Amino acid sequence: MESIQQFSPCIRKQSASLALSDEESKDSSHLSDCESGTSLEDTKDGDFPYSVFSGTGFVRVERREAVYKMIGLKFMSGLSLCGYTAEIEAMYRNIFSTVMSEARLQSFRIYSRAMDTKHGGSANEVYAWYAASSIAEARAIIDNGFGSPAISEKGIYGQGIYLSPSEKPLNSLLSTTPEVDGRRCMLLCRVILGRPELVCPGSTQYHPSSGEFDSGVDSLSSPATYVVWSSHMNTHILPEMLVIFKANRSPDGSEGRKKKMPSSAWVPFSALIGALSKVLPGDAIELIGRVHCEYKKQKMNRMEMVRRVRDIAGDKLLLEIIKSYRARSSTASSLPRH
Length: 338
Prior knowledge:
Blueprint: H1 7-13, H2 22-26, E1 58-60, H3 66-80, E2 84-94, H4 99-118, E3 125-131, H5 135-144, E4 160-165, H6 170-175, E5 184-192, E6 196-198, E7 215-217, E8 226-229, E9 237-249, H7 269-276, H8 282-296, H9 302-313, H10 315-331
Parallel strand pairs: 6-7
Antiparallel strand pairs: 1-2, 2-9, 3-4, 3-5, 4-8, 5-9, 7-8
Helix pairs in contact: 7-10, 8-9
């Protein structure tokens, strides 16, 4: 998880010493235009109606500013590794100039200090992306905080606010909905994770399982999804940046660093559990989720995990899902273009 000490001051003070991760803070030369998939020099501000965020305490960040370059490169390089290109239309920074935004900042600091005390000096603050369903929703969150429409009530990891690590924006990108002109919107938020617990797919959880934990993750070693429970959504999440952008699949569909996929029939577990949940009863989905959880904890190998899932779901249903997934994957070559 990324270090927060240098990232936050740069957002508000435009310091040139922005660092999004411990590794990058040691050697910022690793992040360059060449890695981004889309050079910042190629992005254009366009004619976006910036007035929609007037009076919110969010101010526009100019392309020449260090914070624009660092966040832009981080965002675009994270997407390019997954085979997407991005064009940033506009970027805003929260300067906490309104009465309510200042109150939210102070509240966040109070809870951060409380979490420090609870966990012996580590609130475990990170930066993460939240996918706004629309620019209007982003404005509503900035004005009023997170509300019930933002809660993923039917998400595979239970009920809560889902965010993606700053270096892994893909999950949030895929959760965005493009406007008519193709623009999408994401909020970069400071998040208090405290002590996260592993949440298995198919979970119906909506609060920490015990006082020992504070948030949820899909993986303890390399999370791609953070889950902030609804009880904490307006005390443990602080929007600090807003990015308006367009994104598409790379023309060649290539990925910067492809993961090695299993040689046998394969479908992402999130897609599998989503399809199975439409057919199987809840207890079966919960059982499959526990099996996958045991696999991720390395308490069983992949072969054993597959065998157990086959026993629960049946080969016929699994084969139909795999065929359907492959058919959709072969035809979905790009995100909607406008």
